[in-house]
Amino acid sequence: MSRPLAIIGNVNVDIIVGDYPPTLHPGTESMVAHGDVRPAGCVGNTALAWTALGTPFQVAANTGNDMFGDWLRSIFRTHSGAWPRESCATTFSVGIAHPDSERTFLTTHGHIEKLSLDEVRRALDFEALSGGIALLVGGFLMDRLSADYPGLFDLLEQHRIEVALDTGWPITGWTPAIRAQCLGWVAHTHHLLMNEVELLSLFEVPEVEDAMMAAVRMMPKGAHVIAKRGPLGASGLRGGSMIHVPAPVVKAVDTIGAGDVFNAGYLAAIARGESFDAAIAAGVATASRAISTHPREYVAPPVQKQSLRGR
Ligand SMILES: Nc1ncnc2c1ncn2[C@@H]1O[C@H](COP(=O)(O)OP(=O)(O)OP(=O)(O)O)[C@@H](O)[C@H]1O
Ligand SMILES: [Mg+2]
């Protein structure tokens, strides 16, 4: 039997347009070649991947009380029944794609900063999650909930639920106050899922391996640290052993939410009881597949057995 999984954090709408026109002046209008409206945010990206992988999970999230909120609820209808509807508009991000595949995001405040610990408590069946893992995402975008992370850690611990944490990049940058807050979260985390630059910034060291070792020293016994490294793949540290899993060489068509899809593949494998190494490999394979397929696919097709005839 698989260990139960949950995700707690931000779901929103992404409106992606591109490519960015060479000139953009106030008071003018430009046509763009591509546009896409999609469910997103860390919760949205991970939930789509877990659903495609056939992994069962619970979600604590919220929406605003508008058309976008209804749309998100209908897309995640099997999970959204207990999500609160806040008295405000639903958060959306406009992502402007640049020709070099970088993007600029402009995000409205909206509902995500209103999610509270009480709402999370009502949205999840903690008894059913006992012995499992809860992934906390979007903390820097959710001031109300992150102020209550200490209470959330207590609640999870009481029910023997391990914490997985993906902090993302703080909007305000890595100020001393943000770093101190984040280190407090890391101390409660069993699976730390950050990208390389975030780890370097949080621990203020030049090498990612040093940041990973600094992290594991302050985490509970037996904790796992993962550094997501884009086209280089991912590294993992548990106890004293460091491993590295390279990413396959693929043509990236859409890297939005790559880290969230990695988290989905990694935690699904951990929940199935696979080894740490195999789980990192699953995270890399799932994410690299997703960012190189359109429409997105999460499961790599099985490797064709080569025919022996004619060799
Ligand atoms: N160009 C790429 N080629 C192959 N795989 C990639 C590429 N970019 C990302 N990936 C895959 O996605 C995983 C996660 O990506 P990345 O390290 O960029 O996470 P992240 O910075 O947390 O992403 P996000 O921008 O979503 O927060 C990588 O470990 C890798 O498997
Ligand atoms: Mg990330």
Summarize the structure.
With 311 residues, this protein is of the alpha/beta class. It has helices at residues 41-53, 67-75, 117-123, 126-129, 143-147, 149-158, 176-186, 196-203, 208-218, 258-271, 276-291, and strands at residues 5-8, 12-18, 34-40, 58-60, 92-97, 103-107, 133-137, 162-166, 191-195, 224-228, 234-238, 241-245. The strands form two sheets. Strands 4-1-7-8-9-10-11-12 form an eight-stranded mixed beta sheet, sandwiched between helices.
Account of the protein in words:
The chain has a single domain (5-10, 41-88, 110-291), classed as UDP-N-acetylmuramoyl-L-alanine:D-glutamate ligase (3-Layer(aba) Sandwich), CATH 3.40.1190. The strands form two sheets. An eight-stranded mixed β-sheet has the order 4-1-7-8-9-10-11-12, sandwiched between helices. It has a four-stranded mixed β-sheet with strand order 3-2-5-6. It has helices spanning 41-53, 67-75, 117-123, 126-129, 143-147, 149-158, 176-186, 196-203, 208-218, 258-271, 276-291; strands at 5-8, 12-18, 34-40, 58-60, 92-97, 103-107, 133-137, 162-166, 191-195, 224-228, 234-238, 241-245. The chain is globular, with a radius of gyration of 20 Å. With 311 residues, the protein is of the alpha/beta class. Helix 1 (41-53) crosses helix 10 (258-271), helix 8 crosses helix 9 (208-218) and helix 10 (258-271) packs antiparallel against helix 11. A hairpin with a 2-residue loop joins strand 11 (234-238) and strand 12. 43% of the residues are buried. The chain is built from eleven helices and twelve strands.
